[in-house]
Amino acid sequence: MARPKKHKELKRNHQIMLRLTDTEYEIISSNAKNASLPLAEYARKLITGKTPKITYEIVADLPELKKLIGEFGKIGSNLNQIARYFNSGGIHSQEMRKYIQQGIADIFEMKHEVLKMAGDLHSLSAELSSIQKGAAAHGHPKTYHQ
């Protein structure tokens, strides 16, 4: 099946030739890739004054985070065992209630730790963002403009 024709108003007939240094090209290429846009579309947005949305992915490889993930797995396993016990006609005892309450307390404690870590990562992300914006305002040569 053939590609549908564009309306005359939407067809791009004009070209602009532009020469860039290797560094300029790398910056624009990297920003276009981060914005998930083809290079031409990214440049078109910049030229027309539209701000392309650039996303950065922060990957945290923290031992504490790995430990918490392992703990969540153990808690999930314990909850499955408790559910299986009750679903197979298990008796609701004080001891079982104690284990359930302890599991819930562990979950809330871990939730608090995860939120604390997320806050630390969020503040780090905000700090990096403000450093980039500050460098952009002062013309830092390694700044990638958004």
Give the DSSP E fraction (strand runs of 2 or more residues): under 5%
Mean pLDDT: 76
Counting structural domains, the number is 2
Give a short account of the largest sheet: none
Unreliable spans are 135-146
How would you classify the helix and strand content by structural class? Answer: mainly alpha
InterPro entries: NikA-like
Protein name: Plasmid mobilization relaxosome protein MobC
Describe this structure in words.
There is one protein chain. The protein is mainly α. The chain has two domains: 20-55, no CATH class; 63-137. The protein is built from four helices and no strands. Helix 1 crosses helix 2 and helix 3 packs antiparallel against helix 4 (94-137). It comes from Blautia parvula.
